[in-house]
Amino acid sequence: MSEAVVEERTPEIAAYWETLGCRFADVDRVFDECMTEAIALLSKEGIEAYIENARFIGKMGRGSEPLLVYLEEAPTVASIVGEEILVEIKDFVYYLSTNTNFKAIIPFLQTISAVTRRLHSIEQLHYYFELIKDMVERTSLSVHGHHTTFPSPGLPDLLKQAPRLLKLVSMEGFKNWIDYGINYYHEHPTRQIDYFSLQSADAHAVLQREQHGTLLVDHERKLDLYMRSLWQDSDYLVPYSLAFSELRKPMPYYDDYGIRLPDVYDDFKGVRGIDRYRATLAHMAAHRRWSSKMVVDNWSPFQRVAVEVFEDCRVDTLVIRLYPGLRRRFLALHPIPNEDDLDKTDQSLLLLRLALVSRAILDPEFKIKDELLSSFVDRFHAMMADGKEGSSRDAADIALSFVARTRRQTDLSPKTYFDNTEVDYRDDNRHLWIYIESGDDEETNFEHLEDQKRDEQVDALPPRHYHEWDYAADHYRPDWVSVYEAIHPSGNASYIDKLLEKHSALAKRLKAILEALKPQEKVRIRYQEEGSELDLDVAIRSLIDLKSGSQPDMRINMSHKNDGRNIAVMLVLDLSQSLNEKADGSSQTILELSQEAVSLLSWTIQQLGDKFSIAGFNSDTRHNVRYAHIKGFSESWGPEVKARLAAMKAQYSTRMGAAMRHAAHYLEAQKADKKLMLVLTDGEPADIDSSDPQVLIQDTRKAVSELDQQGIYSYCINLDPKADEYVEDIFGKQYTVIDHVDRLPEQLPKIFMTLTK
Amino acid sequence: MNDVAQYTIKEEPFYQAQDDEIELYEAAYAARLPVMVKGPTGCGKSRFVEYMAWKLGKPLITVACNEDMTASDLVGRYLLDANGTRWLDGPLTTAARIGAICYLDEIVEARQDTTVVIHPLTDHRRTLPLDKKGELIEAHPDFQLVISYNPGYQSLMKDLKQSTKQRFTGFEFDYPSAETETSIVSKETGIDMELAAKLVKIGGTARNLKGHGLDEGISTRLLTYAATLIKGGVAPKAACRMALVRPITDDADIRDTLDHAISATFA
């Protein structure tokens, strides 16, 4: 580099150097190079603006680095979206510099050209500036008592990640992703950094949701159905992410642990994402059906590549034979290699030759001029002729002879020709090989580590993750809450029996009401014109009418109808700390009263014979929502259940939405005409990691409407006398507030009965 | 009072035997044993019974059972007319009087208390007591009882009682093999074998999904519907979507998968 400085500057560049008025030696060293590029890309006015803005940045007092990066990146940006952007870049740099966010200047300038290449238009770039500005304003904090503003902690990382993010998500998704990070990590500078540098799991989860294209998670069932119905095959579909490994693009593959597919497929060459998944699965299913393993220790890498291609072609041909409509999809995804490039002499062309043959085999329209290559296409077709299936070994024979006969000197050249040779839907064929000697290049296997991890967690159920609604942002926080389910510990069942005894008078009264509610299996409907039987009383009366000449009543039949109850009830108990308080005007705690009430209710429902289950929940931040199983639908109201009920304990907080969603997935599986979820609580939804009380209230409200869509009627029994303020928000009209908690044992069964009458 | 002629089958229905079921049925009929025909919907149960009635030259009375059907819908009831009440035989009584084959289709749909009225007809007694009328009918020597049911979609609530089941001899039907089904579809509708084979292949893909969101696969009956539509000039893909996919599922994922199977099969 330093030699370049020694060479004399052209007068033109020297003049610009003067205008720049800069004394940084490192800038001096690269100036010529930058200018040559700028002159090639920009107009005369553009150059002037370029230098002028560079001069400003150089004199901003932030050292030479911003200027260096600006000089390097700005011409590319201006050439893509127009030269008026140069001023805006300068203004933005100035904005960052005065805004205490000067640390973000370098990453901003470093990524601006990559960002521009993704966005491609000045409007989009403006929007990008706005988003960043918005982010700066929302995350640069002024702490009370300090007279300085703290820079936005996540900004430099965000700017560093911007090109990669924009590659994965649309501008809208980018905005949502930023909003999300700001909203949730506003008060945690370090976590904010983790998020914006894409290191936290949440960042990935949100990013995946915002990704464009067809997500595997959304279509897993559809693809499973596809495998079952068209291929009579089924396996775990495991997604891997394309977003985070830039160096080596992972390929689909399958092994003993399942089929690995990319987590997202964009539409590609006119093939929808879902059809790309299907094409990939069809190809793999074909391997699973028709391919056999081969010993490859003695094959060179070239030979292996060729065997792969011919074997892929063989199974694809068989797929097309079975489902002719898939040819169109395969061909759309298969690249069209350029035969003219066969003349190149400076590169290894093996892949090109193979791609040509592969295309020619699958596409009858595609003809290769090269005779040697097309003779292999013919050989392949001969192997498959007359409905023959061939075998992996046959395909390998052709492939080996292909490598031998088409070998060229240039094949060993270090440069390899890759253009249009990669077939999108094909897997990496690891299943084809058997190694007799374990080589160095075998995949390192980490599965045993996973096993170890699994062993440690054997005694607890794995958590289930649920979304949580964020009313401010109007979207779900993905997999936000972890619900751990366990069986409630047991206590002494006789305690519950004593409680029931204590309320025996009440039970007697309830019993009278129950009799009226009890399902009547059959009800007689009289006065029917058509029915199953003649109603003799009416018939005789009609006959008398008829004989006496007056108009008879023709409704002389009767029929029966079934009048059964078919209700499934789920009682969800809030077991949070506040239940330990004494109820107003009573010597008992709310917990004890709840126990009594639940016992009575259980007894009542048992009498009615409805399907019924009980669960309790409490929460200790979103990472630990505990859901305790007390009674399942198939368990009877016996000593075991009573023992669990007797051991009820109140602790922690109330994250109601997640518990309701979890309970709902059990209730949903029940077969019943009516499904009812009773939520017994003493206060509003709240948790210690949620500072805005509205968030959990709104989330619960959302959960109620989700349940409603699943056909589950939720009803809240609230013991908080001040509940009116929020309970209507959550449950609409489906709630009862019990003012005198000491009357709960009496009230609860009655509420249930009126609800189900 | 019922005309035997109206219950006889005049033309030979098309039926292709899957196995030796025709001979077995003839043997059962010779001994007047009651017969139960099981199998998924649209696999040819009713057609088989119809065919056998034709082959044996006996009248056939078919009753489609449903939940609201009561014993008197089978046996008969009193009706009112100018002179008082009049007894009207139900289909089962009629069949027992005239010596017809009485075919109770989808018997499990009827309530269990209804199905017990057939018990005395199905054992050595071969009688039908009409308790409301105070009459005991001796079944005609030609009378035979056939029931059908579909074990596929029954819930716990809908199963035959053991006491009912054990009065019948049974045939288990399934969808025919691909080749047989192809020739059935082709012969029934007159489309060529190649097209019929494609339809059968699509039918097969749906049958693989049984238990994964589909209660039953695409029946042979639906395949013939699709073939009929194609014969009538409808484009094959549209005909398949209309006849094979839309009727059997409301599940968007399954619908998509089957639509894909159609477009993969018809290039």
Give an overview of the whole structure:
Chain A is α/β, with parallel strands linked by helices and 757 residues long. Chain A folds into 4 domains: 2-209, no CATH class; 214-434, no CATH class; 493-514 and 566-756, von Willebrand factor, type A domain (Rossmann fold); 521-563, no CATH class. Chain A is built from 29 helices and 18 strands. The radius of gyration of chain A is 37 Å and the shape is extended. Residues 1-6 and 451-458 of chain A have low confidence and may be disordered. Chain B has 267 residues and is an alpha/beta fold. Chain B has 2 domains: 4-172, 3-Layer(aba) Sandwich (Rossmann fold), CATH 3.40.50; 178-265. In chain B, 41% of the residues lie in helices and 16% in strands. Chain B contains 12 helices and 9 strands. Chain B has helices spanning 21-30, 45-56, 71-75, 91-98, 112-115, 119-122, 162-165, 178-189, 193-207, 220-231, 236-245, 252-265; strands spanning 35-38, 60-64, 76-81, 84-89, 101-105, 127-130, 135-138, 144-149, 169-172. Chain B has a 5-stranded parallel beta sheet, sandwiched between helices. In chain B, β3 and β4 (84-89) form a beta hairpin. The mean pLDDT of chain B is 88. At the A-B interface, α13, α14, α16, β11 and α23 of A face α3, β3 and α12 of B.
